[in-house]
Amino acid sequence: MFIAMNRFQVAPGAEGDFEQMWMNRESHLHTVPGFVEFHLLRGPMREDHVLYASHTIWRSKADFESWTRSDAFRAAHRGAGGSKPLYLGPPQFEGFEVIQTVGPAA
């Protein structure tokens, strides 16, 4: 399993617009082999921003990398530069290979 995250520092007062942008976009993820699930996370408020993260779970790192080279990826990110006034600086990518998973007790 592979988890891909992008962290965004959203300008104070732009949270609603940022969230609506994500809610209204067509991600095309449901069409991509190896996609498991997606979460948009709102984190703590800091002095100059609110932290958000996009959190995507993939069957494997290879599946994620294939997504980044796909037509679906290009379609999902078309026009992404237009949202830059909502956040401070570029998103920060973090990728994680899962080494342990613990589920609920049976």
Q: What do these coordinates show?
A:
- By secondary structure, this protein is of the alpha+beta class.
- It has helices at 15-24, 61-68, 71-77, and strands at residues 2-10, 35-45, 50-58, 92-97.
- Strand 2 (35-45) and strand 3 form a beta hairpin.
- It is globular, with a radius of gyration of 15 Å.
- Keywords: Monooxygenase, Oxidoreductase.
- It comes from Teichococcus oryzae.
- Residues 2-96 form the ABM domain.
Sheet with most strands: 4 strands, antiparallel
Integer average pLDDT: 90
CATH topology: Alpha-Beta Plaits
CATH class: Alpha Beta
Radius of gyration: 15 Å
The CATH architecture assignment turns out to be: 2-Layer Sandwich
Number of domains: 1
* N-to-C span: 22 Å
Q: How are strands sequenced across the largest beta sheet?
A: 2-3-1-4
Number of strands: 4
Q: What is the chains' assembly state? A: single chain
Organism: Teichococcus oryzae
Keywords: Monooxygenase, Oxidoreductase
Protein name: Antibiotic biosynthesis monooxygenase
GO molecular function, one term: monooxygenase activity
Quick structural gist:
Residues 2-96 form the ABM domain. This protein is an alpha+beta fold and 106 residues long.
Which structural traits does this protein have?
single chain; 106 residues; alpha+beta; Alpha-Beta Plaits; 4-stranded antiparallel beta sheet; 3 helices; 24% helix; Dimeric_a/b-barrel; Heme-degrading_MO; Antibiotic biosynthesis monooxygenase; monooxygenase
